[in-house]
């Protein structure tokens, strides 16, 4: 006797049972991809053009020193740091069970795997985040990226990712922004007001 199933589940089961062949991916001619003489300089320019700010540093203590000179950091009350060796925090997000309790975060300090010079974006692996909302709910963000891992373009970025495991990850480029109203660019409209990036 066939067990009773809901119609939606039956449809989904039938779909999963079919092996659908999709079109082959195009072959990318690597000689036509955009590359730069100095990817790090281009990354800094691209990031600045979308509202972010980059700092090239030589010592880890410089991250905290530079942030401390920013008034909104010096006056911050709630800082969640996922890189405590660089910047101490006073909110341990790993102990927070309800992400809604992070709504009053002033700053989040995160780490990025690599940057992309083409558009100033940074890949942040979700496994480094106790809660993915941290990147979007904090008033301000700082991301620490290895300066040796600045790639030329998004093709190289996706090649570096390979086939990602299921889960969360995101390319971040600058702070939150919108230009829906009168085509006037507004930063911090939906989330992070300002992004500081430290190339270490």
TrEMBL record:
Residues 101-200 form the LUD domain. It comes from the Bacteria. SUPFAM superfamilies: NagB/RpiA/CoA transferase-like. Transmembrane segments: none annotated. This is Lactate utilization protein C. It comes from Rubripirellula amarantea. The gene is lutC.
């Amino acid at each position: 006797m066939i067990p009773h199933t809901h119609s939606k589940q039956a449809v989904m089961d039938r779909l999963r049972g079919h092996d659908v062949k999709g079109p082959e991916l195009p072959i990318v001619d690597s000689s036509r991809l955009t590359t730069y003489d100095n990817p790090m300089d281009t990354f800094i320019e691209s990031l600045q053009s979308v509202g972010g700010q980059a700092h090239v540093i030589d010592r880890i203590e410089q991250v905290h020193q530079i942030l401390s000179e920013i008034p909104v950091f010096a006056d911050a009350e709630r800082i969640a740091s996922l890189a405590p060796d660089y910047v101490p925090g006073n909110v341990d997000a790993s102990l927070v069970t309800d992400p809604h309790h992070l709504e009053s975060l002033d700053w989040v300090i995160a780490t990025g795997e690599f940057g992309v010079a083409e558009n100033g974006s940074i890949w942040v692996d979700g496994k480094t985040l106790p809660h993915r909302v941290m990147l979007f709910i904090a008033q301000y963000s700082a991301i620490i990226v290895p300066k040796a891992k600045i790639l030329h373009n998004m093709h190289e970025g996706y090649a570096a990712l390979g086939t990602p495991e299921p889960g969360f990850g995101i390319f971040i480029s600058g702070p939150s922004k919108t230009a829906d109203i009168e085509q006037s660019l507004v930063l911090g409209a939906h989330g992070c007001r300002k992004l500081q990036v430290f190339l270490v």
